[in-house]
Design a protein that fits this description.
With 661 residues, the protein is an alpha+beta fold. It is 15% helix and 34% strand. A hairpin with a 2-residue loop joins strand 1 and strand 2.
């Protein structure tokens, strides 16, 4: 067998074993031999695999594995040598197959010696031999499943305290308690008469200061003055007596601050005193001619001659003209002119020398035969005459004498059809009289297209209202529209007035409802139109015991209108029932201003409500017309007189406040 490399087959081993055993024993022993042989072959294959792996590892690992492999091979060769008695090197050694066969034969013999055969049965196994050397460790197995989490350990001792951190950034400054300080002071305002002025004022402080407006040494013109929610004072249709100093007063519990502004009203010039239309002076006498006027800025007064150059005369500081030693060359027409920044006016009169000869009175003024005046207009007519002796001058209408402010003057103001007619100027002295007639015509204004008394449309419609007028003989007359007061309304549609007086309202909303006025001429005639846009009352809840419309105990003109929906639609116009209107926040603050009143609450637990709940809905807030911008509300759970509060929430909507018209 030496020098051959052949597989160890079962037949070759069986042939050698059969010499020592009976058939039955032989089968058992063959099984043992095959088992041991398979173990040796497995060890050899494992050694060969480790040799290949060692070639692929790093040097350090390769040397460590090689030592283990060499030790295992050395052990096998040593056993082989002991079994065969052969101490040959690897070059002359037998193959491993021969080696395994020899091992199997040797162990078979040893097994036969240790056993006895009795009737073809093996004897009991002998004592176990000593353990052989430990085999090469196998490859690590796959990781097992993760075990259950253990119990929490005991809390350790507290660690040492860390070092103190750096100082943080300073926080925002809190509100301080301060007296009022103005952030915006009112400025002086210059306005023409009939204009519109505004004074703005704002102040800071804590608590927030309250702003009030006063007029120094007088009172505000209440019918024409208003104070907005942002504390702006507005005066409409300014009069000349509105001139003065206005005071903005900011006040809280820590003090009062005041700021002043001056209102200057520009007024056109008006004559306050003029000479008569004819001044008669004796020759050689002195005469003082006075011409005074009012206006703002203060008017200047100048004198001139219509028919020549003013050669003599002295103008005093008060505007009067002094003529001395009157002579014939001084006779003529004189003119007084007054002017300021808004315009000028003139007045002319005649200066005559007194005659020593008496004559019947006669009219010297040039008056038109017919004079037309626009309705609501005004006119001044001067009638003068001469004598001598100096005549009496007066006016009549239909034989009725007219009282004059000045001698010979006819002054008609704000005229109407009743002022039309024949007027006569009378000049009388004891020697005779003279009369001059003038016919005053005031055109009658009539509507050609009179607007309807009412218009009802649905929302988003276009409203067209015709309003045209004319004077007599078909002469067109201008018209003007006056819109409803919309002090706190929002979302109104675009309004356009065409050249022929037609009013067009595009994309009308409920906010455009109200009373519209069409005026012709200078408001000589007017027509009223009531516009109603989609007045929908289906929003109201009427099923509680008050029918959703409870009257206030504190103010009997105030009502609480309940909404069926508890969600507030800020863009919707909620109509009050007919005969009532929806007030603004400013009016609401005036109505509800007594927090000490201990009467019943607004709606809480009343009219069948369960506290704030009725019909499955919870309701807190009664809103005002401009609450979409002010967020103001009247709480259903507060007393009837309790003050107005604010919130922008659209939920828990209770309804609106209505006031009887």
């Amino acid at each position: 067998m030496a020098g051959k490399n052949k597989d160890v087959s079962c037949s070759s081993i069986r042939d050698r074993v059969v010499l020592y055993t009976t058939p039955t024993v032989t089968s058992v022993l063959m099984a043992i031999v095959f088992w041991q042989l398979s173990l040796y072959q497995a060890q050899v294959r494992e050694l060969q695999r480790h040799v290949k792996l060692s070639d692929a590892t790093t040097d350090s690992k390769r040397f460590a594995n090689k030592e283990k492999i060499d030790s295992s091979v050395e052990e096998l060769l040593s056993r082989y040598t002991r079994a065969t008695g052969n101490d040959k090197g690897t070059d002359g050694a037998q193959t491993l197959d021969d080696y395994f066969v020899r091992i199997a034969e040797q162990q078979l013999r040893e097994s036969l010696k240790a056993r006895c055969v009795d009737n073809e049965r093996l004897c009991l196994q002998g004592p176990k031999g000593n353990s052989g050397p430990r085999g090469i460790a196998g490859l690590p197995g796959s990781s097992g499943s993760k075990g259950d989490k253990g119990d929490r350990g005991v809390v350790g001792t507290r660690g040492l305290r860390g070092t103190k951190g750096s100082k943080g950034e300073p926080g925002a400054r809190g509100a301080s308690i301060d007296p009022p300080v103005f952030t915006h002071k009112p400025h002086d305002v210059v306005s023409p008469e009939s204009g519109r002025v505004e004074f703005h004022c704002a102040a800071d402080g804590f608590p927030t200061p309250k702003i009030r407006w006063l007029k120094l040494d007088s009172t505000l013109p209440r019918s024409r003055a208003s104070i907005s929610i942002n504390d702006t004072l507005t005066i409409r249709n300014v009069h000349r007596h509105d001139v003065g100093i206005y005071v903005c007063m900011a006040e809280n519990i820590f003090g009062v601050a005041r700021s002043y502004a001056n209102l200057i009203v520009q007024v056109p010039v008006e004559f306050s005193l003029v000479p008569p239309s004819v001044v008669t002076v004796q020759p050689g006498k002195n005469v003082k001619l006075q011409c005074l006027a009012t206006g703002h800025p203060s008017p200047t007064i100048t004198w001139s001659r219509v028919d020549g150059v003013l050669e003599s005369g002295k103008v005093n500081a008060n505007g009067s003209l002094m003529l001395e030693s009157i002579k014939k060359s001084d006779i003529g027409q004189y003119m007084c002119t007054v002017r300021n920044a808004l315009g000028k006016k003139t007045y002319s009169f005649a200066l005559n020398l007194e005659s020593t000869e008496e004559a019947a009175a006669r009219v010297t003024s040039h008056l038109p035969a017919v004079l037309g005046i626009q309705p609501r207009g005004s006119v001044k007519l001067q009638c003068s005459g001469v004598g001598p002796p100096a005549p009496e001058v007066y006016w009549t209408k239909e034989s009725v004498r007219i009282k004059s402010e000045q001698k010979g003057q006819l002054h008609l103001k704000n005229v109407s059809q009743q002022d039309a007619g024949i007027y006569r100027c009378h000049v009388v002295n004891y020697l005779g009289r003279d009369v001059k007639e003038i016919s005053i015509v005031i055109p009658e204004i009539k509507f050609v297209q009179r607007p309807p008394t009412s218009v009802s449309v649905s929302a988003s419609s276009t409203i067209v209202i015709n309003c045209t007028a004319q004077l007599m003989h078909g002469i067109p007359e201008s018209t003007q529209w006056e819109f409803p007061v919309q002090q706190c309304r929002a979302g109104s549609a675009k309004k356009t007035v065409l050249s022929n007086g037609t009013l067009v309202i595009q994309d009308a909303t409920e906010w455009d409802s109200g009373t519209y006025l069409c005026h012709a001429g200078n408001k000589e005639i007017s027509a009223k139109v009531e516009v109603r846009v989609a007045e929908d009352m289906n929003w109201m809840l009427t099923s509680d015991s008050c029918k959703g419309f409870r009257q206030s105990i504190y103010n009997r003109s105030v009502y609480y209108a309940v909404s069926s929906s508890t969600t507030w639609n800020k863009s919707k116009y909620y109509h009050c029932p007919v005969g009532y209107y929806w007030p603004c926040t400013e009016e609401g603050r005036k109505i509800f201003n007594d927090n000490s009143w201990s009467g019943p609450n607004s709606y809480f637990g009343r009219c069948g409500w369960s506290s704030y709940t009725y019909g499955g809905g919870t309701r807190y807030y009664f809103r005002f017309r401009d609450s979409s911008s002010t967020s103001a509300y009247k709480h259903a759970g507060n007393a009837d007189a309790y003050q107005v509060q604010t919130t922008s929430s659209t939920s828990n909507f209770a309804g609106i406040i209505c006031v009887k018209e």
